[in-house]
Write a structure and sequence with these properties.
The longest helix has 20 residues. The protein is mainly alpha-helical. A two-stranded parallel sheet has the order 1-4. The chain has a two-stranded parallel sheet with strand order 2-3. The chain is 56% helix and 10% strand.
Length: 154
């Protein structure tokens, strides 16, 4: 696996939520058009102590899934523990350990930053090595008759 792209779509908290979601949607739609992925992998929302934060993440995930659906791209969701297990071999791995392992697995000169970018790449790695990847490959083969190549973008 190699990382072709990675980063974070940033919004500011002073913007209304609908504008922030619009920016996320527009940015993801551009990335999907540019990279033409066969699947989108997303981390399942974890409802912890901060319900407001969890709601915002859930809304952003919904906008990401909408952008994928508009292009006919299937979405696959993974728990934080499954992602950490796939990348680090332990479902309880910390953020720094995930960053270091993502960098190592993708042959990067240093761990990706910020940690949200590393998290996105970790989700892609999890998908690339699991049953979701196999399912996406099957769907792509059925839709196109052959694969043009597989890419990882986080």
């Amino acid at each position: 696996m190699v990382a072709l792209d990675g980063g974070v779509v940033e919004t500011t908290p002073d913007q209304p939520m609908e504008r922030r979601l619009e920016r996320i949607h527009r940015s993801l739609a551009e990335l999907l058009a540019w990279h033409e992925p066969k699947a989108m992998a997303i981390e399942q929302v974890y409802f912890g102590k901060n319900v407001r934060s969890a709601m915002a993440v859930g809304q952003a995930s919904g906008v990401a899934m909408l952008a994928a659906a508009e292009r006919g791209i299937g979405c696959f969701m993974y728990t934080p523990q499954a992602i950490k297990m796939a990348v680090c071999g332990s479902g309880g791995a910390g953020k720094r350990q995930v960053q270091r392992m993502v960098g190592t697995l993708l042959g990067l000169p240093e761990p990706p930053t910020p940690d949200h970018a590393a998290d996105a790449l970790a989700v892609a790695i999890c998908h690339g090595g699991g049953t979701g990847h196999r399912s996406a490959v099957t769907m792509a083969r059925e839709a196109t008759g052959a694969l043009r190549g597989e890419r990882i973008a986080g």
